[in-house]
Amino acid sequence: MIPRRSCWLILLLNLLNVQSLLDASWWSTVAQLSTALAGHNVKPVCELPGLSPGQAQVCELFKDHMPAVSIGAQNAIQECQRQFTGHRWNCSTHYSTGMLGPIHKMATREAAFTYAILSAGVTHEIGRRCKQGLLTSCGCSDETKPKNVPTDWSWGGCGDNVEYGYKFSRDFIDIREKEHDPKRNHDNGRSLMNRRNNEAGRKILKRHRKPKCKCHGVSGACNMKTCWMQLPSMEQVGKILRNKYDKAIRVQINDRGNLQLLADEATKERKTRALPTDLVFMDDSPDYCRFDRHSGTLGTEGRVCKRGSGGAEGCDSLCCGRGYNTYTQEVKSKCNCKFEWCCKVVCQTCNNVTQVDICK
Amino acid sequence: MMLFPVLYILFAFSVTNGYLEDSWAMFSSERPVGPKCVDIPSNLSICNGIEYTQMRLPNILEHETVSEAIHASKDWESLLRLNCHPDTQRFLCSLFAPVCLMQMDRLILPCKSLCMAVKQGCENRMANYGFPWPEMLSCEKFEDDDMCIKPMQPAKPPAGSSTTCTACSQVATYENLVDQFCRSHLVLKAKVIRDSPTHIRVRNGRSLKKGERRRGVSDVEIRLSSESDGSCPCNIPVKNQNEKLLVMASRQPDGKYLANLVLPWQKEKNFKRAIHQFQRLNCQSLGREIRESASRRPHYYEMRRHNTGRYQMF
């Protein structure tokens, strides 16, 4: 009797483990797509375990798009880390478990931010590659001239094709949230939240495009210009989404299976519905202080903090009251660089001794 | 009975192994797109002969592709051939095809002193043809520091010698010859005598000015340098006394001539083309013609690339 029970327990634990691995590795899979395409991996490109069946089909049909998906995701994660540098949650990748990209097992506002910026990153990179002529099925933007461009400037050039990027990103990323995957429990609320936040990221990219104008010719006053529509940079997108993150709206799933503002949320904000570009979440965030496999948090142990600072990166806040250790660090760097024609840069080497505070 | 736990443990381990294997391969994947080095193509003509071979994209003028930089640089080829300053190429090339150094991210900009030197030499001549110094070449945005491209150091002349006369160091490009023609009152194909350190004397010459064809000119004295007491070398490679030169000079307020250009007569294509043009050139409308020809060129940004196919999911 006792041996049988232990057998079943082990089996159950492994199944649960597989499910959480599959879920958490979704964006890790996206990041691996270009690796597979580069031939560093024997595994067939579109059979990576994190792709859903529908996504695998899209991958087969649009193989030349996959490097853009991968790079767009990587750029998004970099921008995410830049926005949250020094915060307890800093969009870190969980290298020790071999999985890449942020892991969000709970429907927190951090998950909302991550999904939105990843979706925006993919849209951005696809649109940019259309402009550069790197994808066979799309080219320059077809957009007409907006009204705020002076009439005597010409409208032409090659604009970023955000329309195409938007459609592809929506179809490729959201298809996963619509499918019923037998390998995982179907969580309708979480899927709706993910789709909502993905769409917010894409819409923010679309709404913040603006005309880019360039002078041409030997004109002195720059009165000859050609303009086209250009996407915002990922830095700008990160900044906008960061504001949305600070004002994220809590929702819940209602009886009819739709997302709905919480009652107290609606009363407090005096509005009955969220904007299409608002981020939404369903769960409270953990404090991100301790390593917790169950909730997928890394903790702040070993993080570099700033002594005496009152902000998020200050040691009192970042270390969650556990204190910090101070280490002396000697850094060699290049200094007093000079450019010599033609063509090299000559630098001296400087030694700098600094102190680094690290959370206990 | 003991066999089952072992099998399940192996299963879990192999799953973990698969993910670890995939994740490590990621580190060799394609890097995010950023500034990059590309070879300077030969049809980026303003940089032909420059001392470096790789340029950085995007460049300082925000051109994102090589073809965009090439297209925009063609407007400036004429300025370069005008030879209005010895550092023109270094300056223009540093903007259109900036030096690319793999080990560092920062842009190598031209020094403000380089920009000002080129502007001082070229601004007036551009203005003659209706082209004010453009905003995109404004010197305000450059700084003099240790990491910028400095003006060329002039070669130190030997003791007791002075620099070559400006008139004797001209280039025989079409643009320069036509420009000098329009600024000169006297344009001759002539045999000359160097009868003093500061002057040449026309021994036997023929005017090339419109309406003055075949008018013989002789015994005209032309000063070589505008500086008083200026004596400067004018080492025209003349094989013998009968070698013919192209001589251009301006009439000064005192009625005397100051040399603008002294070159040996050549059979080279651009030289002959310019000489042939002298008879039909209208100097009053030259500036307007140049501006209009510049405006007629199709602009890079109007050459759109349209969709090659329609987007369809299934």
UniProtKB/TrEMBL annotation, chain B:
Stretch forming the signal peptide: 1-18
Gene3D superfamilies in alphabetical order: 2.40.50.120, Frizzled cysteine-rich domain
Classification via Pfam families: Fz
PROSITE patterns linked: FZ, NTR
Domain FZ: 36-151
Disulfide-linked positions: C47-C93, C84-C122, C115-C139
Family: Belongs to the secreted frizzled-related protein (sFRP) family.
Protein name: Secreted frizzled-related protein 1
Organism, as annotated: Caenorhabditis elegans
Gene of this entry: sfrp-1
